[in-house]
Amino acid sequence: MNLDHAVVIGASMSGLLTARVLSDYFRQVTLLDRDSLPTDAAHRQGVPQGRHLHVLQAKGEQILSQFFPGLEIELLPAGATRLELGSDLLWYQYGGYKVRYHSGITALCMSRPLLEVSVRHHVLALQNLTCLERCAVQGLVANEDQVWLNSAEWVTAPLSLTRPAVGLLKVKV
Ligand SMILES: Cc1cc2nc3c(=O)[nH]c(=O)nc-3n(C[C@H](O)[C@H](O)[C@H](O)COP(=O)(O)OP(=O)(O)OC[C@H]3O[C@@H](n4cnc5c(N)ncnc54)[C@H](O)[C@@H]3O)c2cc1C
Description:
The protein is of the alpha+beta class. It contains four helices and twelve strands; from the N terminus they run E-H-E-E-H-H-E-E-E-E-H-E-E-E-E-E. The longest helix has 13 residues, at 112-124. 22% of the residues are buried. Residues 155-159 have low confidence and may be disordered. This is FAD-binding domain-containing protein.
């Protein structure tokens, strides 16, 4: 396998984590998203569920902390709250409140944009990563050794991406 250049479509939570993992193995990683990516914890169109309250459960926090040391220290002063899931939650379901108890399990509650922008800051700091915003991929065309990302809007590109025609990103893989 040629581990020269990885392209990740979508710079939301899955894309950010995928890009972080691939950056350990590929010489270059390019991350694309059709949105403009805010620099602060702002809502964006590409993540319509972003206005709902989100919780980062224990395993997710553990994994994120391994990839992004210090993330929790950044999230708490920025507005995240740590809850004890058994005793801090008042859970109403099927017509009644659940019994509260000490579970020993905690989770970080925060807005979806806060989590995403915090992770994004770490990912964008990766030396071998380039992020292209406002790049809406419309399709993929592949042959034996090349993949074309068909994109209507295209703003900037690193040198290793060539632009053979309007709206077409050609990526040598
Ligand atoms: C009401 C609600 C509550 C939730 N609560 C929780 C919770 O508490 N905890 C939790 O862990 N999860 C929660 N989730 C789930 C969580 O929000 C999603 O699992 C998560 O956002 C999925 O991330 P993703 O990166 O896979 O996809 P998305 O967040 O959907 O991101 C897709 C990305 O791809 C980009 N994109 C799409 N098409 C293109 C294209 N053609 N070209 C370029 N870019 C493109 C978009 O702009 C976007 O950035 C909740 C979901 C909902 C609906």
